[in-house]
Amino acid sequence: MSTRMFGAPVQRSEDARLVAGRGAFLDDLGAAACAAAFVRSPHARARIRDIDAADAVGVEGLIAVYTYEDLSGPMAEPLPLLIPHPSILDSRTPYALAREYVHHVGEAVAMVIAEDRYAAEDAAARIRVDYEVGEAVVGIDAAVAAERTVHEGMADNVAAHLVQEVGDARAAVDAAPNSLELDLDVERSAGTPLEGRGVYARWEPASSSTGSDDGRLRVYSSTQTATGVRAAVAAKLELALGQVEVVVPDVGGGFGVKIVHPWPEEVMVPWAARRLGREVKWTEDRREHFVAAAHERAQRQRVRVGFDDSGRMLGLDVDLLHDNGAYLPYGVIVPIVTSTQLLGPYKPGAYRVEFRSLYTSTVIVTPYRGAGRPQGVFAMERTMDAIADHLGLDRLQVRAANVIRPDEMPYDQGLLFQDGRPLIYDSGDYPRMLEMIAELVDWPGFAEYRDRAHREGRRVGIGVACYVEGTGPGPYEGGHVQVETSGKVRVATGLTSQGQGHGTVLAQIVADELDVPLSDVEVTTGDTRRMGYSVGTFASRGAVTSGSAVALAARRLKDKALRIAADALEADAGDLEFADGRIQVTGSPVHSIDLSTVAVLSNPLRYAFDSASAAATQFSGSADYDRPPVAEGEAPGLEGTDYHSPLRCTFANGAHAAIVETDPDTAEIRILRYCVVHDCGNLINPRIVEGQVQGGVAQGVAGALYERMAYDSDGQLLNASLMDFLMPYASEIPSVEIAHMQTPSPLNPLGVKGAGEAGVIPASAALAAAVEDAEGFRVDRMPISPSELFELRRRHAAGGVPSVPARPSPASAPSGAAADAPAPSSPPPAGAAPPEGPDPSEPPVPSAREPR
Amino acid sequence: MKPPPFAYHAPTDPDEAVGLLAEAGAEGKALAGGQSLIPLLNMRLAAPSVLVDLNRVAGLGGVEVDADGVRVGALVRHAQLEADTAAAEAVPLLGQGLRLVAHPVIRNRGTTVGSIVHADPAAEMPAVLALLDGAVEVRGPAGTRTVPAAEFITGPMETALATGEIATAARFPRPEPGTGTAFVEISRRHGDYALCGAAAAVTLGADGRVTRARCCLISVAPVPLVVDLTPQLAGGGAQTDEIDEAAAVAAERTDPDDDIHAGADYRRHLARVLTGRALAQASAAASASAAYTGADR
Amino acid sequence: MTEEQHDIRLRVNGIPHTARVPARRLLSDCLRHDLGLTGTHVGCEHGVCGACTVLVDGRPVRSCLMLAVSAAQHDDITTVEGLAAPDGTPHPAQQAFGECHALQCGFCTPGFLTLVAAYVRDNPAPDEEDAREAVTGNLCRCTGYQNIVNAVLRTAEITREQDGGAGVPHARPSAEHDGAAGDATAAAPRTEGGRP
């Protein structure tokens, strides 16, 4: 038996190619393609009176200019509402090219095709669009006020409205011995992958292989869903699904923005390629990405909470205002996720959540890594800290009083989740999670550190935030595993990769299933030619859904291999085992057959093409003349296909703790330590999981302290460049200390949970708490910049921002905090003793790393 | 994001370069390091019809250090100047400013003189030039002239260069003996343009008393803002309370704007904090300098 | 209106190339689209992200902030494709990035690799703080930088191992390299030219 690959921190198989400069990203393809550029609206709200391309005609290299007037049939209709939901009152989606109205700066108005991008931009700059400029609706206040509407024919700006309630939350809050009300605010950010979007299409003339008289389309797209783009493009271009192939090359980051499909550009490029009979490519530039892709996060939240004297919630009543931008192509997934995942690891008592999703004259809002969870966690964790302060209790102690215990799993929160299925947590040990984060960050030791820092004139603070993340939603993913006659194993799944290392992780799973060397396994993702049934890469679902699918597919392959091997070895299949690339009689390696030979035997041949295949030809050996060469019920080839369709999401969880220092003079905020406890079930590749956590935390820190979308009241994005949108460099991002928990999921064959988004989710909440702790006043709005912290200090000094009380030193382990909390169902593992109160006999240990 | 078309010239003779620029008039642009100009071209925020590439022009390279100070040719990259130990020794403020200019990769290509000519109110090197009372050597159709720093930058992204003129060198005078300098700034990200920055020069007499003190603030006024703080500090020992008072005076002179990265009040506050820090560092450096410590220490 | 074309000669990864380009062609586009060296990536085209970083005469610069016609005045350009030894042995930085899981999507990686190759050549023994500062100036959206910082340290370590081991200096594509035998920090190619 070779070394088990599942759980091993193996190096990625993708890397050799990528570090050599042999990656194949969208713009690396199609050297001969002509280039597309788009004329985009400079106004947030306008009616198009006229488009005049006369000036562009003389541009050398110009091939074509298209406007809405050139579109017909489905192309002339609005792009689809991808995820319909009963709460949607009025769904507006954009046209492929603007029809009469534009609703945000950056909306595509005309398409230019030219010999190269330089010429395309020259021509685009010469196209005169006559706009009748209207007034924009920017920000949640303006959207709610509805003095004007974003869209024609609407009475207000409410796109969707939903109330979910478990119990009578308002009555519970009113009846509670203690209650609080919080107003919170989170601003916009965006995933901002370093590679923007891109589409490259070519039209292949009809032949008998195209299955139609009008040819076939090959589309390459930098997308998170190959099958989604295929279906959408086929529908828009009125092609049969079989006429459209979508191939997803290397993708330079996605973070959610590339799950939206079809983008206007994603249908226009194939449409133009077909119309021109030429290869066409569009590579989004950075400025376009800021104004024509998608943003996320902006929400206004009002929380009312009622709780008992131990800090246990009795009722939670949340009102959300969600800015969804100018259109709603992705439905209401983000506010639904906020509404449901807000609960985190806690039992809210009675719960009511209401959201209004609002149109504004800005770029669309669709999921960005975390997808509504960072906002929900911000609301819940700010509430936890407020409860603790109100009661004078330790902040971890209040959390411990509210978490769901392991013996309550599976735990039904009574709501409907974003996948349309019940919000039932499958597994997790939240009390232990709290103990571990306290231990990792040395929560009890912080008071001593703070005192020492104070004596040096420094301000430091600590904050913690917890989350539960529903991962791995269905409907399904598929896996196809094939052993070739060379012994190489080819694996395919339909979802796409943007750096998550699927090529390595899925190979690890299959290598274990078949007991073959990892180097013999090769993985294809995101190619509709290899796997036509798939959903896409989002919601931390790759390992859960495709991982499970390829495991199941490998098991199907194994069953088949055993039948063939049993025949060949004249043994009972039940007596056989897989070992080192062979099938052998259990415990008897001399009675064995190579998997490559099984592959040869699985596919009876007439024609040989090499010595291995000769063994499968019709005169090559003994044959049973009473049976057909391919037995009834079998199919040729040593391969297996299967799908994993999870019952519902599996719920990962974790806790982050941050220690920050704020400069008393300049209000600069520096992170001294950042600690993560993370439970994504069984780890397939710890190295990759840690990379996901580190990258997620970096985006979380970015969203908390650096990034925002600065719109003015006219709907102009003032920071549409990486100069002014402050994506952090290495100098701004802390090292992350990670401790893993592994609570397996019972909902999939691997016991895994998703890991892709977790790192980003609680960062804003943890950092807000830490800054608040350092400063001694309430922080209820993120992100926060030094300039804003300076303003808060002034307002606090003037009495306009409430103080938070001095935090008590935690005297005992968080899990034992609530007097009547039941004991944990199982004792903590060895080496993980709950933190205890300061022992006077021990010298104090500095807990926070000294600043560099 | 591709540049618009332009006619391109790469002359080797300075007079040819000047002639080409003069001929192009307002439509002409000179290219040195390009680290400010090319982003503007790529975003089509600048669209010159003629680009005169100075990179092959003879006589514009070289760092010369003499008794007066440091003369930096128009094609000297920031990194080249930063690595020049003789220049650093003669004018320590050069290195103190250069290390704050963007990132090393930008400094590998960007030129110090180009940065001065670009005249961004948040840029460090114009402040270094201004604080030191340096000058810019200019060559134009009418010949050469030397423009004092105080007259060179006339507004945000505006200089005294006339059409057809190029800056051929910048001169950074040696500070008088007993002078210490410092440059501190705060930016949102490492390497970004500063929210506010302060350069300071403090000169101590043989008795250890301040004889001259000045600061130059960036990002809080349309041009690098030089404030003479000699009246506040002269004769004193640069004690904390004296510095605080001087910093307050400097901050009052600023005229910052609100922008998406910081409010005006915060910038004014930073001007005070950073002026204080720069003055303290500069006076410490002055104390440590050989001119003051003398042989008896 | 016909745009004037310029015939330029570029020496890239030790190989002379010719191209016919308009003056406005960015070096990044020239490398990628005229010479087919698509390993150099374009992430922002305003000099902030660093994905397009290449070595010009051994020094890292932004190829999106350089015109191809200006680049032709220089002696030598090295892209990510030119970092490995002629026999295909990965450059220490390439090896280190894989070992340290310093890349995820891989889009920014070529810019980091050229930067780190030059940095470690000039700074053979960085500490962690140096390493972090060395890569500040290039953006990565996936990794959170921690493993990139580790990879800088590992690059230096591999380089020292190689120099202290078989003594095979890492091959440099540039024939014009000074070839100093005593250069103990074999890493990125560098041509010491008489640049102004």
Automatic annotation (TrEMBL), chain B:
The lineage of its organism: Bacteria, Bacillati, Actinomycetota, Actinomycetes, Streptosporangiales. InterPro entries: CO_DH_flav_C, CO_DH_flav_C_dom_sf, Diverse_Substr_Oxidored, FAD-bd_PCMH, FAD-bd_PCMH-like_sf, FAD-bd_PCMH_sub1, FAD-bd_PCMH_sub2, Mopterin_DH_FAD-bd. This is Molybdopterin dehydrogenase. Residues 1-177 form the FAD-binding PCMH-type domain. Gene3D superfamilies: 3.30.465.10, CO dehydrogenase flavoprotein, C-terminal domain, Uridine Diphospho-n-acetylenolpyruvylglucosamine Reductase, domain 2. It holds the Pfam family CO_deh_flav_C. GO terms for molecular function: FAD binding; oxidoreductase activity. Keywords: FAD, Flavoprotein, Oxidoreductase.
